[in-house]
Design goal:
Strand order of the largest sheet: 1-2
Order of helices and strands: EEH
Oligomer: single chain
Number of strands: 2
Structural class: alpha+beta
Shape: extended
Helix content: 10-25%
Amino acid sequence: MLIKTEMRIQETEVIGDIYCNVCGRKLKTDNHGYYEDFVHVEKHWGYTSEKDGTEECADICEQCWDKFTASFAIKSKKTA
């Protein structure tokens, strides 16, 4: 059996820094490189919107998320 191999150089996209879009704070990492938890939101606006065809995304830290959800008229459901 003959196995042929070849050398390749591949580029890999890695996450650099993450900033909260609300407060602007840089999210911290632990000793293993894991980021503190955050919410990532992506929205693709549809034809019934004035933003038809546009896309938006944002990262929101836990503290800003808590402030945001506290303002809800109908509270979000929390599960454990």
